[in-house]
TrEMBL record:
This is Uncharacterized protein. The keyword Mitochondrion does not apply. Residues 301-326 are annotated as: Disordered. The keyword Transmembrane applies. Keywords: Membrane, Transmembrane, Transmembrane helix. It comes from the Eukaryota. The chain crosses the membrane at residues 38-57, 69-97, 117-139, 146-166, 186-210, 231-249. Residues 303-314 have a biased composition (Polar residues).
Amino acid sequence: MTAAITYLGTATPELTDSQIKEIFANLDVAFNDVMLNAFFHGIYTGVVAVTLWAVASRNNFQDYRRPHFPVFTILLLYIVATVGFCCVWAGAISTFISDGESFWTAYSVSPKTSMLLTAGIVATLSTVLADATSIWRCWIVWGRSWGVVLVPIACTTLGIASRGIVTYYTTFGSHPSPQALYLENIVSWSLLYSSLILATLLWCTILIIYRILRVGRVAGRVRVYQRVIEMLVESASLYSVVLVVLLVMEARNELTGTFVEDLAIAMRGIMPTILVGRVAAGHARPDDSWNESTVRSSLRFGNHSSSHNDTEMSVGSGWDTPSAVRPDLEEGLGDITAVRVKGASPTASEHDYYAHVVGTSSSVDYSVV
């Protein structure tokens, strides 16, 4: 039994130096977590603003026929992320200001049930929206094939269920003691949740990268850096890397995993926003260009069209350019003169030949226009 001592007007149990040091380390991590969360949310706000500006600046008629689902998704995702950040900020105010009379009261404060429930709902909705964006892009890239996205849809559904269990235990279950960092039952469900979300992202990432490389090899006109940027944005591979690091931190119960979690929360909103902004701004491939048969047929049609145009230009260029008309006319007049000398074409005249040439040139010009 430890004796209580008075510290700044509050009863504080007698603690060892190592325990006090650990408490202050946890409080430092909690405070830095709020600051880092605010920093990442500010970057996220800037990305959303630039994306919306890029979408609004496309006033062409074709843009009105684009699906509005992706833009609505990133707006809803940003609203949900903002609500989650407000919950984090309110918890920091409660910990360090309202209940911050001493380090012990700040350390032993328990969050409100409503705040925990809101944070759980926000995390679930954010996961659904972010994964839906990745699955939608994978579906588009693979030519709207539902068989490709069945596995990520199943993983996302199971991940939502596991996140709901985590929210239930965190909100209505027994609260951990101040010395405990994680509950054993929450750690298992958290790992399952992170693993399922990671499986969804890795599935979509690998398939999108493979599709980009395959279609790019068929097209053969995309530069290397453009293909790298396309793979990074389309596949959300950076978000997958962050989730891998977060999964390792959660498995090891590392306290600094909170900072990686802040980065993962920000990347969960930033990567879909950049993807949707790239698509809405017209910098991504057209949706119908992901079909390899379409790419091959367009290449063949392009070669045929170019050769046909070259043939037409080689035939008709003599009638369009005055400098080229003169040699043809001189040759024609020479031929007529030679024929007239020989007496083989008594009805042909220079005026008739010139009228025939001019009429041909006029017919060609009107057909081009």
